Task: inverse folding
């Protein structure tokens, strides 16, 4: 299975980079992982709603350029479905059974995802109604994907 994480924003903190590297190494047993980091657009203080939409469109265009037609796209979206770790594991397993072996997870920038990216997505997933820094969220996503593959493989993992 191929897992691609397309994310807006660069990781600056060393401790987050270390965690991403660790989960990337762990995931290499289960899938081919590709992380695509895209530059985020600078949002001016007191940006108008129109300016925010334009920023999301620019970031969205960059995201869409990295999505292949063959990818099953899961957008990380506050209005998406909330799943437990077990349910996410089952969802990933079922995608594989259906022949969807090229999965892309999309993490937007601080303003969220553009309408075009949401329309291209096949599924919308929400981890929580809370707000997380997108750099930290990348670590959380990789951990949950790793946990999912451990569950699929019937291997023990901390509950």
Result:
């Amino acid at each position: 299975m191929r897992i691609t994480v397309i994310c807006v924003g660069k990781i600056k903190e060393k401790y987050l980079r270390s965690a991403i590297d660790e989960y990337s190494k762990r995931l290499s047993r289960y899938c081919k992982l590709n992380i695509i980091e895209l530059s985020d657009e600078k949002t001016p203080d007191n940006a108008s709603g129109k300016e925010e939409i334009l920023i999301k469109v620019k970031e969205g265009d960059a995201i869409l350029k990295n999505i292949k037609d063959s990818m099953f796209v899961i957008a990380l979206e506050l209005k998406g479905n909330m799943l437990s770790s077990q349910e996410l594991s089952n969802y990933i397993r079922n995608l594989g059974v259906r022949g969807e072996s090229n999965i892309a997870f999309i993490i937007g920038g601080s303003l969220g995802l553009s309408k075009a990216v949401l329309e291209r997505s096949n599924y919308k997933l929400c981890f929580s109604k809370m707000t997380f820094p997108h750099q930290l969220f990348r670590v959380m996503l990789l951990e949950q994907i790793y946990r999912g593959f451990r569950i699929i493989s019937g291997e023990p993992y901390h509950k």
In short: The longest strand covers residues 72-82. Residues 81 and 125 are 5 Å apart (CA to CA). The chain is about 45% helix and 20% strand. The longest helix spans residues 134-152.
